[in-house]
Amino acid sequence: TYGENIIEEPSAIAQRVGATLAINGDYYGFRSEGIVIRNGIAFRDEGARDGLALYSDGQLKVYAETATDAQQLVDDGVWQAWSFGPGLIIDGQIQDGIDDVEVDTNVGNHSIQGQQPRTGIAMIEPNHYLFVVVDGRAEGYSVGVTMSEFAELFAGLGAQVAYNLDGGGSSTMVYHNDLVNNPRGEGKERGTSDIIWTTGT
User: Fold this and answer.
1) Are 146 and 99 within 8 A, CB to CB?
2) In what order do the strands lie in the sheet with 118-125?
3) Cα torsion at 4, 198, 34, 109 (round to 10°)?
4) Domain assignment of residue 189, yes or no
5) Torsion angle of alpha carbons 116, 159, 90, 148, nearest 10°?
6) First to last CA, the chain
7) Residue 194, Cβ neighbours under 10 Å: how many?
8) 183 belongs to a structural domain
9) Rounded to whole angstroms, how far apart are CA atoms 156 and 152?
10) What percent of the chain has pLDDT over 90?
11) Which is the most buried residue in 21, 67, 89, 138, by most CB within 10 A?
């Protein structure tokens, strides 16, 4: 269900939809800006930042939300669009300035700099994707990664496109209904608006 501050733990959403593998998404319900498209339907059209578009042919592309609109994206074949960022890798190249990007400064939530827990999605080639979650904020276990370190991780895995999603305490990965990472260093999930998920073995 789409709406502001409608949240559920990622593992609960994953179980309900029958996901094999799931990560938290962009937490669209926390903000009023950004372009949000789900299953080919535009729910929000307030361009503000780097967006990520998944096309019906399996292409994953980072784009500037302020240079287009939701209807044009749908007309061009976009099936899903997420709004968080920044774009980490475009056309196989790590982007400059990604360690200085701020998100949601209007609500004081801009602590994405430095070493943090991270969630990201990437494409090696159409229909071949990477879901990566890095734990953090847990001394002796994992302090997290910077945005540049996150981009380098994706580059080392062969990503041609990579995009940062909501991180911090939201960073969660679920596989066959089991929580496989350690959110917040406590093994406790944070409720979120959405997940990105796949089915299969």
Assistant:
1) yes
2) 93-94, 87-90, 161-164, 118-125, 128-134
3) 70
4) yes
5) 30
6) 27
7) 24
8) yes
9) 6
10) 81
11) 89
Cβ(81)–Cβ(70) under 8 Å?
Answer: yes
CA separation (Å) from 49 to 18, 33, 39, 76? 31, 9, 21, 19
- Model pTM score: 0.93
Say if 4 falls within a structural domain.
Answer: no
Q: Return the SS3 of 129.
A: strand
101 pLDDT tier (thresholds 50, 70, 90)? confident
| Helix intervals (H) in 114-159 | 147-156
Give the whole-angstrom CA distance, residue 140 versus residue 177.
27
Which of 23, 196, 163 shows the shortest CA–CA distance to 86? 163
Cis peptide bond N-terminal to 126, omega within 30: no
Instruction: State the CB neighbour count (10 A cutoff) for residue 146.
Output: 16
Instruction: Tell me if 45 is assigned to some domain.
Output: no
Give the DSSP letter string of 68-116.
Answer: S-HHHHHHTTEEEEEE---EEEETTEEPTTGGG----GGGT--TTSSSB
Specify the number of domains making up the chain: 1
pLDDT at 51 over 90: yes
Say how far apart CA 26 and CA 170 lie, in whole Å.
9
For 13, the 3-state DSSP assignment is helix
What does the block give as tokens for 4?
A: 């502001």
Average pLDDT over residues 11-31: 94
Q: Residue 166 is part of which domain span? A: 10-30+85-99+112-198
